[in-house]
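Technical note accompanying the year-one report. For the benefit of new consortium partners, we illustrate the data format agreed upon in the data management plan: each record pairs a sequence with a structure-token string. No post-processing was applied to the example shown here.
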Amino acid sequence: MFGGGKQKPLVGLDIGSSSIKAVELKGSKQGYELMSYGLEPLAQDTVVDGAIMDAPLVAAAITSIFERQKIKTKNVATSVSGHSVIVKRVTLPLMTEGELYDRIQAEASQHIPFDITDVNLSHQLLETVDSQMDVLLVAVKKDKILNHTNVLAQAGKTPVVVDIDAFALQNCFEVNYDPDPGQTVALLNVGASVMNINIVRGGVPLFTRDVSVGGNQYTDALQKELDLSFEDAERLKHGENIAGVAGEQRGTILRSVSDILILEIQKTFDFFRATASGENIQRIYVAGGTARVPGLLDLLREEFAMPVEELYPFRKIVINPGRHNEDEIRELAPRLAIAVGLALRSFDP
């Protein structure tokens, strides 16, 4: 959203609450090819709700990924989400791009709950119908962007693009799935502390919301209920067995947290339907590390009575078996979706 310009190699860098993910792509005859990828776990509370708490540690983790994967490119595309990010769709009378540019500040101040001088503002024309135009307004608090860009500078990287997590996810989805322009789908990225929800039709984001729920809640519940260490709770959450814990016990606790997640998704869908008359969501795609929590996708299918699938971010991206282990990539895939969406910003016209 902020930045861009002519095509140059960019590394997609997703700074999440539990890990940092990097993806580098190159253009190929078939479209795109994976050059390199890396994932560096972060200690608890290093990044909280999208805010970087320990800048030197995050900078060191970024440096470590780039060195280990021998990534030469210093330019990166990164993204933000959470309470400091506001995405609004507004309807305005038809006007020229110049008139819109002049009016956008005044329009934004009516829709954004922050002082307009404290935010970076971006807008995009979505569609024009009769004498009206729908415009996407995006505002991100300046200190939120600085929180990310300062860390990147510490790691010796140049932030060329700062995007929004939900839009990076949409980018990844559209390139890999060639969606039917008439189909309305919900894209969920369920991370460790934040879930990004983006309801999309034909390349247009219809409704976007970030919710402060995610994989950490499963870990916390398992730790408390079963008196486990953080590490054991994480392993249990990812489907491993722990001595002394019955599968039934684990299933019950995971289910109780999944119910909280599903309630937030339900509330979002209900609000969307109430504001977008006649729109029906036809399919759900799930990404993020939490997508693999045992039973979650089945519960979503059951609750929403529609097809639900894990989003595979390399569906249309060539993976050279001489360079990469495809089994390892498939194992990490849901966690790499945002980074892939960001890496695709290299190819923006």
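Partners are asked to follow this layout when depositing records. Confidence is low (pLDDT under 50) at residues 2-6.
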